[in-house]
Amino acid sequence: MHELLLFASAPANQHHELLQQLAGLTAMQPRHRLERHLVFKATRKTGQINTRLGGGSQDVQGAELQRLTKMLTGATYYTQVVGVVNESDFGASTDTYDFDSQLWRMEWRDIPEAGTRSAVTSRLMSNAVLPHGDVVATMNSWGYEFVTEYVVEGDVFIHNDVVLFLHRVLNYSDEAPKTQQPQKMLPPFKDLTLLDRSGSYLLQTAVTVQDGSNPEMVKTATQHLFRLKEQLRTAVRLEQADRLSLDTRVK
Questions:
Q1: How far apart are CA 198 and CA 223, in angstroms?
Q2: Are 83 and 102 contacting, i.e. CB atoms less than 8 angstroms apart?
Q3: Would you state the pLDDT for residue 56?
Q4: N or C: which end of the chain has fewer CB within 10 A?
Q5: What stretches pass through the bilayer (predicted)?
Q6: Is 251 a domain residue?
């Protein structure tokens, strides 16, 4: 699959107004979203991996297996494992937040394509659902080691086939204990710190194209992004991202 994108920065003092504008444009209320993002680094050599999951977990089947194999056997990349959480999970005890029951999905994103004439960012992408449980052990068995994690807070809107995500990145406090593993218990939400200390938000607009080699599908998706760009031009300036800023390759 291919993902076509445009991005815009929004100052913190315009956040509420922009939420209202996006709600009016999409005719829907924002869907608030909190995500844990675990970052893993590929350490194995390019080649076949065993996508059978140990530890009593069921095997990944069908299309999920195909997606996993394609993601994990190519060149080495940083890959993210994402889990949706609630604000009530932060600062909670293990009685209310169970890390080993957290549902996860793997997100693989290639470096954006170079030399394209299009004015949108285009990159290969794939997602795969992972069984819950010890995701670190699973990723280690596939040749990936845990690097770090962060939290994404934002609001999602849907406009035709475009997904709009107005969000910002939150880090754990510098006073949080440093570990080589993901946090088993989440700190209080108020203790998270902004990656961008100005509080600015990033608006990501994305269209997923099933067949990126189909010119008509890509053209239609691009036109939808351009139309959205024009509709929002008085509020934000949607643009391509710098290609190297989205480089996911392990050096």
A1: 33
A2: yes
A3: 35
A4: C
A5: none
A6: no
